[in-house]
């Protein structure tokens, strides 16, 4: 704040701050109602093999059907839900809905059915009993563990917690795959990741969106993909919007990707329709 205008600045700032705090509190109350009233749904964005365009799986993305504000994206509520812990209840609901959807795909398409990939917040993952709840849901819905991928964040790994390591190992032992989401945006390096029980690296959209205009970024992605493959990890590039990005990624050796170029997130109904049609076509 510049000298002389300090007081005026604060007068302008405080009401804004007050409004922001009140809005967050209101959001929390509304989230409680949303959890109780089952206002959350899940959409599914295809994860495709870049070379062939064939869909390998779908990422489950939560949406909130707000009674007054319409359909809200996670950017409008996930942060507050993380802070309050409500993300645990929301995450459980997403897990139920997404696993149920994938079980239906499996019944429709059999061996050709795509997998489902579900975002798990650090707080949800650390909740005691998380791993067994995942197994319980798979059993209840009849989805083979090999059809489930869980997307975790770097923040989960940062605290270097033995329990997290054990849980990741146990999940993978049963055939569930684990992906690190938004790779490259945090602090961990791939050389660090080689110790983590992981199957898949999802390269953040930040890299995808700059790969075509910066040789340096392209070289960086090339390095990430090579190292990941050396470590036996699969790579998925996020946020592919242009063919030039897809082609560069494909040339680099990145096998999978997702983004608006291929498809926006689909409703559950749209996803089942596509999956059923593809089965008929095959
Ligand atoms: P994410 O896991 O990295 O998911 C990818 C996000 O990028 C999605 O946004 C997706 O719609 C968007 N996206 C996909 N392709 C493109 C593209 O080509 N261009 C652009 N600009 N964006 C693209 P969405 O659905 O708004 O989700 C945002 C974030 O919210 C997710 O990022 C994830 O971190 C979080 N999230 C979503 N669903 C859940 C959930 O069920 N649980 C938890 N804990 N977090 C979730
Ligand atoms: Mg994700
Ligand atoms: Mg991501
Ligand atoms: Mg992302």
TrEMBL record:
Residues 24-279 form the EAL domain. This is PAS domain S-box-containing protein/diguanylate cyclase (GGDEF)-like protein. The chain holds residues 732 to 1013 of 1013 of the full protein.
